[in-house]
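User: Quick sanity check before I run a bigger batch. Here is a single chain. Can you write out its predicted 3D structure?
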Amino acid sequence: MSALLARLHAAGIRVKADGEDLVVRPQAPLTEDQLAYLRRHKPQLIAELRRADEVRSRLLAHLAVDPELVRAFEVVDPDSDPVRVAVAIRGVGSCELLIRQERWDPVEFLRLIHEQRAVS
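Assistant: Done. Predicted structure follows.
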């Protein structure tokens, strides 16, 4: 999740892209500042939402191809801070994790994924 989407999420505002439109689902009525933020960042938000959908689609395709596969993940942006990791779990859902660069350890991440697989 980008900083733009994280800010909206923290304010209780959910958005999704519908073509060139943003579908906005706020928990409370939007303020003028929030509306201005959405208008100002609309192109970036739509691009970010599309990117996230593409990653999610790739992960779900991996799960669809291999019925034995329970989890799929992709390190979306390993050089960013935070590092962005998308995860899909069969029958559960998908998400994007943000891990501070100073804490990111790909070997540890794989170990944790493997341990969780053993528990399931």
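The first strand starts at residue 13 and ends at 18.

User: Great, the batch can go ahead then.
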